[in-house]
Automatic annotation (TrEMBL), chain A:
<dbReference type="GO" id="GO:0015833">
    <property type="term" value="P:peptide transport"/>
</dbReference>
<feature type="domain" description="ABC transporter">
    <location>
        <begin position="8"/>
        <end position="256"/>
    </location>
</feature>
<keyword id="KW-0547">Nucleotide-binding</keyword>
<dbReference type="GO" id="GO:0005524">
    <property type="term" value="F:ATP binding"/>
</dbReference>
<dbReference type="GO" id="GO:0016887">
    <property type="term" value="F:ATP hydrolysis activity"/>
</dbReference>
<dbReference type="Pfam" id="PF00005">
    <property type="entry name" value="ABC_tran"/>
</dbReference>
<dbReference type="InterPro" id="IPR003439">
    <property type="entry name" value="ABC_transporter-like_ATP-bd"/>
</dbReference>
<dbReference type="InterPro" id="IPR017871">
    <property type="entry name" value="ABC_transporter-like_CS"/>
</dbReference>
<dbReference type="GO" id="GO:0055085">
    <property type="term" value="P:transmembrane transport"/>
</dbReference>
TrEMBL record, chain B:
<feature type="domain" description="ABC transmembrane type-1">
    <location>
        <begin position="94"/>
        <end position="311"/>
    </location>
</feature>
<feature type="transmembrane region" description="Helical">
    <location>
        <begin position="174"/>
        <end position="198"/>
    </location>
</feature>
<feature type="transmembrane region" description="Helical">
    <location>
        <begin position="243"/>
        <end position="268"/>
    </location>
</feature>
<dbReference type="InterPro" id="IPR045621">
    <property type="entry name" value="BPD_transp_1_N"/>
</dbReference>
<comment type="similarity">
    <text>Belongs to the binding-protein-dependent transport system permease family.</text>
</comment>
<feature type="transmembrane region" description="Helical">
    <location>
        <begin position="12"/>
        <end position="30"/>
    </location>
</feature>
<feature type="transmembrane region" description="Helical">
    <location>
        <begin position="133"/>
        <end position="154"/>
    </location>
</feature>
<keyword id="KW-0813">Transport</keyword>
<keyword id="KW-1133">Transmembrane helix</keyword>
Length: 332, 326
């Protein structure tokens, strides 16, 4: 088996506040193989974006990586000194943020921003870097790139700006792209274009993609595998077809049930009652237990770990076939 | 761009006409100018002769038109106390004020930006706390007090710097400069600090606040995600965005530096326009007061125009809105 491009093991991220330490990510593990697209879904605050930022080393104080390991193509990167992780950012890991309108510096021509990034990571002359920038703009589908390269960000539409952002993210041929809600701020019609662009780039360059979004439709279209996050943990992870059509975890079931279909048998959309717990008030046991329809005693005391179940891995006691210690204790 | 500049220039002329009306009305409301020229026992006939010779018997609009026409050619009449053309007096005094204001502004900009950037990037160091203490002093202590304290320390106690005047000056054409002699430079130090301290703290606080704001923006986060060096992010991306509002404030402050030089010039007996103005107020020398008012507003209006144009050079977004007016 080849080494995965990204391998995250038991990642823990904490935020120190005046009163206490909040654990935003609590034991997250996943792999992304070369050329694979992993979708990461979940509600706001589930820890999707923080996971992405942790991988690229952009967790700012008061936040910090409290535990676990992150490997990029086999090399551990989570404990590197700032200057070395800086060299990896942009060169080996590209990142795309949510809002293309604010991701670009308004005072610099887009060409200058691309050339600057290329020259930071590659040993190219000004002219060679500029030529590469034109090629990149053409690749991400900017018409007349040799003219548009001298335009300022405000002269582009939102969709076009996101293309520029993507060009910036891929300009040094990274092994991994982290796309944090890349389509959320865009029109639906533009969303589809950006999604197919990310998909095509991943395929053409063999780039691994971590696609963070709360839009199940986007995941279904783009991803090979999907990880459903809840309250800083992975609830379920597996191939996208299986998870969408046959979700196991009650939370994943709820998420899939909340997607409207066009087939439109006049069914009410399922909604999950309640809301995700605040970081300061995560219940003991399974964090989903107060909202779960299938909750039983064990869920309230014992934290479920992701366990292999067919093609999925799911963190739910319903699918845990091994006998439970707490249950044994009560029986005894 | 040209249309924009022209439009702003026309607005500027409008402002100058309005100021002209105010300057002119000073002559009419600050008592009868004839009384200030003649002595108490001058016969009425002689007073009328003086009035006629000065054109003060003409209708008000005619007088205003004449005053404004002359002012546009930098003729502001004759000073009551010096019996010399006001324009000559102003020209003689202007280099001193402009040199002082320029030095104070350069001092304020250089130290204000350096201290602002430093205290934004290194938020919790002792030096940052020291800078903030200095800025508190600069903002709260009145100018004349700072000037007097500096004189007490460096002139009276230590005897390093002159306590008043410009030192030796060199004459280049009609311009006199203190920048070319040692005593002139020494004489500039304390007045410049006194005059520039308030602006420096203002700029420092502005730069710090703006920089902290800019460092939180998405494009800085994205610049970091692109792996740019900290240096490029701080001094390339963040600083340039910080400077957009700083230009406006610093530009407008240059105008007030010239206007408020009055106090500093009085403390240091600096032979500039401000000192001339203070003497004119004491002696009800209205031509000088009116001319000073006009000069200061001309400087303000010019600076405003320059700032507007500079703005569009720094920020490309403004350029395009100007090209296609909404």
């Amino acid at each position: 088996m080849t080494v995965p491009v990204l391998s995250v093991r038991n990642l823990e991220v904490e935020f120190l506040t005046r009163r206490s330490t909040l654990r935003a990510i609590n034991g997250v593990s996943f792999d992304i193989a070369k050329g694979e697209v992993l979708g990461v879904v979940g509600e706001s605050g589930a820890g999707k974006s923080v996971t992405g930022l942790a991988v690229i080393g952009l967790i700012d104080p008061p936040g910090r990586i409290a535990g676990g390991e992150i490997y990029l193509s086999g090399t551990r990167i989570d404990h590197l000194p700032p200057e070395e992780i800086r060299r990896i950012r942009g060169k080996r890991i590209g990142m795309i943020f949510q809002d293309p309108l604010t991701s670009l510096n308004p005072l610099y021509r887009i060409g200058d921003q691309i050339v600057e990034t290329i020259r930071t990571h590659m040993n190219l002359s000004e002219t060679a870097a500029r030529k590469r920038a034109v090629d990149l703009l053409a690749e991400v589908g900017i018409p007349a790139p040799d003219k548009r390269i001298d335009a300022y960000p405000h002269e582009f539409s939102g969709g076009m700006r996101q293309r520029v952002v993507i060009a910036l993210a891929i300009c040094a041929e990274p092994e991994l792209i982290i796309a944090d809600e890349p389509t959320t701020a865009l029109d639906v019609s533009v969303q589809a274009q950006i999604i197919s662009l990310i998909k095509r780039l991943g395929r053409d360059h063999g780039t691994a993609v971590m696609l963070v979004t709360h839009d199940m439709g986007v995941i279904a279209e783009t991803s090979d595998r999907v990880a459903v996050m809840y309250s800083g943990r992975i609830a379920e992870i597996g191939p996208v077809q299986d998870v969408v059509q046959n979700p196991l975890h009650p939370y994943a079931k709820g998420l899939m049930g909340a997607i409207p279909t066009l087939a439109g048998e006049d069914k009410r959309l399922v909604q999950i009652p309640g809301s995700m717990p605040r970081l300061s008030a995560i219940p003991p046991g399974c964090p989903f237990n107060p909202r779960c329809a299938f909750v039983f005693d064990r869920c309230r005391v014992d934290r479920p770990e992701p366990l292999k179940h067919g093609s999925h891995a799911v963190a739910c006691h319903l699918f845990d076939t091994t006998p439970h210690e707490a249950a044994k204790e009560t029986a005894a | 761009m040209l249309a924009f500049t022209l439009r702003r220039a026309i607005q500027a002329i409008g402002v100058m006409i309005a100021v002209g009306v105010i300057a002119f009305s000073m002559f009419r409301f600050a008592g009868d100018p004839v009384n200030q020229i003649v002595s108490l026992d001058t016969p009425a006939a002689e007073r009328e002769a003086v009035r006629k010779s000065l054109g003060l018997d003409d209708p008000v609009p005619v007088q205003f038109a004449r005053y404004f026409g002359n002012a546009a050619q930098f003729k502001f009449g004759v000073s009551y106390q010096f019996r010399q053309p006001v324009s000559n007096l102003l020209m003689e005094r202007m280099p001193a004020t402009l040199e002082l204001a320029a030095c104070a502004t350069v001092f304020a900009m250089v130290f204000g930006i350096l201290m602002g950037v430093y205290s934004a990037l290194r938020r919790d160091t002792i030096l940052t706390k020291f800078f903030q203490a200095v800025s508190l002093i600069g903002i709260s202590l009145p100018t004349f007090l700072i000037g007097i304290l500096l004189i007490y320390l460096f002139s009276v106690t230590l005897g390093w710097l002159p306590s008043f005047g410009r030192g030796d000056v060199v004459r280049i054409g009609w311009w006199t400069t203190g920048l070319l002699t040692l005593s002139g430079l020494k004489a500039l130090i304390m007045p410049s600090i006194t005059l520039g301290l308030f602006q420096m703290t203002l700029i420092m606080r502005l730069v710090r606040a703006e920089m902290l704001e800019v460092l939180r923006t998405d494009y800085i986060r994205f610049a970091r995600a692109r792996g740019l060096t900290t240096r490029a992010i701080h001094f390339g991306h963040a600083l340039k965005n910080t400077l957009v509002p700083v230009i406006t404030v610093a530009g407008l402050q240059f105008g007030s530096v010239i206007a408020f030089a009055i106090i500093t010039e009085t403390v240091f007996q600096w032979p500039g326009m401000g000192l001339l103005f203070v003497q004119a107020v004491q002696n009800v020398d209205i031509p000088i007061m009116a001319a000073y008012l006009l000069m200061v507003s001309l400087i303000f209006v010019t600076i405003n125009l320059v700032v507007d144009i500079l703005y569009t050079i720094v920020d490309p977004r403004l350029r395009s809105t100007i090209r296609r007016p909404a």
